[in-house]
Design brief:
Chain lengths: 145, 69
């Protein structure tokens, strides 16, 4: 299992007590990928959420018949969180750009079930996810300014 | 243990930016490597007030071989 100290470097876990961090970590599966591997496909309904522990990924969106890069994400970042909060398909394709890239993968339904049974934990997770999405919006706005 | 969530932007190249979390604060003049290319930090600003140990920063980058202004 991922160590608490490593988890604390990921914004998803910010503000959680150790017991709650362990509850979330217990739902995650550590996975390792190589450059070129695909973590998520835009439009797919896999319902997976990832925390990037090590490495880099590139977020790409469809533009006509091609995929256009949007942003690179590094350690500590969330991937797929939009599908967690709105239940929709993945909003972008995510490609691994560094070998190795290690992630903690979660099933959306399992995380949501944990939020239901542990409301305070659920509140903190959702707050952190909202803050993460807000940061991404701010980044996007500054990048096109 | 402070954490720094950093938005890296390269003016004129909106898709080349990155978001990383690091354990040390970025500094003006620092060289970072993104997508295999070297960039120099030219500006660091606070994007949001810190929350606990987490700082939210915005960094503007310029190609490392570009003459300084």
């Amino acid at each position: 299992m991922v160590e608490i100290s490593l988890a604390r470097q990921c914004i998803l876990f910010h503000g959680l007590v150790e017991e709650d961090i362990r509850r979330v970590l217990a739902l995650g599966k550590e996975e390792t990928y190589r450059e070129g591997d695909v973590l998520a496909v835009q439009g797919s309904r896999e319902g997976k959420v990832f925390v990037l522990l090590e490495g880099m990924v590139e977020v790409q969106v469809k533009a006509g018949n091609t995929l256009q890069p949007v942003v690179t994400l590094g350690p500590g970042q969330l991937i797929g969180e939009i599908t967690l909060v709105d239940g929709g398909p993945h909003s972008a394709t995510v490609i691994v750009t560094q070998t190795p890239t290690r992630v903690l993968a979660f099933e959306r339904d399992a995380l949501l079930a944990l939020c239901e049974t542990h409301p305070r934990l659920g509140y903190v997770l959702m707050r952190n996810i909202a803050a993460d999405l807000g940061f991404k919006v701010r980044h996007h706005n500054l990048s096109i300014a | 243990m402070a954490l720094y969530k950093v938005s890296y932007v390269i003016p004129g190249r909106p898709s080349a930016g990155a978001i990383l979390t690091r354990r040390d604060a970025p500094r003006v003049g620092e060289i970072v490597t993104l997508h295999g290319e070297r960039y120099r930090v030219v500006e660091v600003i606070e994007l949001l007030p810190p929350q606990g140990v987490v700082h939210f920063l915005h960094v503007t980058l310029a190609p490392a071989d570009e003459p300084r202004a």
